[in-house]
Amino acid sequence: MQDATFELFEKAGFNISGYERSYFPRIDDDELELIMLRAQEMSRYVADGVLDAGLTGYDWIKENGSEVHEVCELLYSKSTTKPARWVLAVPEESRVHKVADLEGGIIATELVNVTKKYFDYHDMNVKVEFSWGATEVKARLVDGIVELTETGSSLGANNLRILDTVLTSTTRFIANNEAWADGFKREKIENIAILLNAAIDAKTLVGMKMNVGSENLEKILKILPAEKSPTVSALADKEYVAIEIVIEDKVERELIPQLKRAGASGIITYPLNKVIH
């Protein structure tokens, strides 16, 4: 998540440097000091007040049982915009075909506490062992594993079969409860949250401008899937207007030919850094 996180902060307007060589990167904001920690540890340091705020996964907040304030959910990840999942998986050749078949078995995972609660919920006697990594490899040494996946490709490559989802997780921006109660710190944290979410929202959107003859305006407006009513501006040539909208990037290539055929000209699109709703 490191590269995706720094890219997000840069789109949000922050300049961060030195993270390639130091755990204490520099940021162009005199009111902020940064430190890089593993996601597994972050919620504990925030809960204890060592840090005022941090980014970590919902999974590690639950695993650590951390009492923190969740400022917002940040829907980004290293591979996709989808939430990550901790899944219960077994080898393809395993005789286990449903969760109940694991009664009395051994499960390897890094997410020990959450996994224990999962099997307690199912009222099952299962031994949960901590895995130090490469958990997919251990699936054939124990009865099953609980492992993190975004796309499922790694599990498929290791010929593993998913039985169930134990926990769905996304990145959370969290704050220490005392820091959140402090007026200055709370406003600063809220400002960061607004900018980060604005950068995330901008990832799937593009801006579009075009010129339209007045006689074609109504026809063009019916085609446009604008977030809100498009901006229509008068031009020096009274027979034309300019239209500006924000659209999802996935519809851009289908929309442009339709607009061209409907009489739009001078169509341009451009990327967005931040979109604040």
Give structural notes.
This protein has helices at residues 2-11, 39-47, 58-64, 112-121, 153-157, 177-181, 183-202, 217-223, 249-261, and strands spanning 16-17, 26-27, 53-57, 69-74, 84-91, 106-109, 127-130, 144-149, 160-169, 171-175, 205-213, 231-234, 240-248, 264-271. The longest helix has 20 residues, at 183-202. 31% of the residues lie in helices and 30% in strands. It has 9 helices and 14 strands. It has 277 residues and is of the alpha+beta class. The chain starts with a helix and ends in a 6-residue tail after the last strand. The model has no long low-confidence stretch (mean pLDDT 93).
Brief summary:
The chain contains nine helices and 14 strands. It has helices at 2-11, 39-47, 58-64, 112-121, 153-157, 177-181, 183-202, 217-223, 249-261, and strands at residues 16-17, 26-27, 53-57, 69-74, 84-91, 106-109, 127-130, 144-149, 160-169, 171-175, 205-213, 231-234, 240-248, 264-271.
